[in-house]
Amino acid sequence: MLRLTTIALLTSMFAIVVWAILGAESLQHIGGAPFDLLAVHAAVESWLNGHDPYQMRYAEGLTIFYYPPWALPMLSPFGLLEPDTFRKAAFITSILLIVGSALLIASLLPRSHRPLAWFLAAIFLPCWVTLKLGQISPLLLGALALSGYLFARCRNSIVGSLVLLPLFLKPHLAAPVYLFVVARSIRARDGTSAFALLGACSFLVALSLVVDRGLFTSYLGAWENAPFRWETPTLAALLRWKGGFTSELIAPVIWILGCCAAVWIERRESSSARGLYFSAAFSVACAPYIWTYDFLLLLPAVIQLSCRGPAWTRVAMIAATATLLLVPFSSFFEHWWFPWSVIACLAGSDFAPGRTTIRKDITS
Question: What predicted TM-score, i.e. pTM, was given to this entire model?
């Protein structure tokens, strides 16, 4: 009963506060704030009607749909709803996913730390940016949070790995997390979780090939104006736009380093839940391109680092999270520093190399 009351209370508070937060100064600089999931809905609906979603363009000429072909079968239920109904359902579902994720992440902490975890989730600006712009990021966060919970509490590696399938909508973010799962499966000498996850991904790719082989050609064509060349909040963009580096190899090299970091995390972290969360932090920080609303995947790591580890890293992580509230979201590029502040706190915490205080999950 207590848990149901807590969930109901937090959901109500979240729904009420959202309207006030969405009017915050830092969010007012976003601009027209289109509900981007409507573009995804239009692309999926177009595909269901036999058209090529990669040929759809915004008024500026930019491609509407940058998701890979296997995303279309995954997102096909979206196209069955009317646009207005879909928008309302997506908004409500996003709120529930964010609240549910916060509760799952907090449940892996000692009870005394859970109020701080809920507070951090409530002030985490990417949550509000995601809700205002209407993004798919809450689904990815929900998958990550639930997978970590299943690995930590239920010890069900197969279901825990399959829950991560929504991350395959954004392969560049999924790769480090998936590598962590594969590496953990290999070290445990139990390949079921890795085979389940990779098998499900392979099935989706094969399904998209069977349904419409031409989608892959159109998808590659849409990447002539690839987002990794844009001014997005990544280290690669910082080096290219401000550091004078012109080589397009910068983005893939940093991304590969992020994938390697996920394997390193697996070797150093005893908890599968925290390992997943920290791998996701590296996937965001080292991504070849990313949007500020994808920072939502940093929330599990932010909560862990704010509630566990040395006092200075906890204070630094909370301060960085609070600073986001003060920086206007007038440009994606201005926020490249935040993922790396998470990585810096991770490096300084007791989860870093050379430390001997790596602890197992506390489940009560």
Answer: 0.85
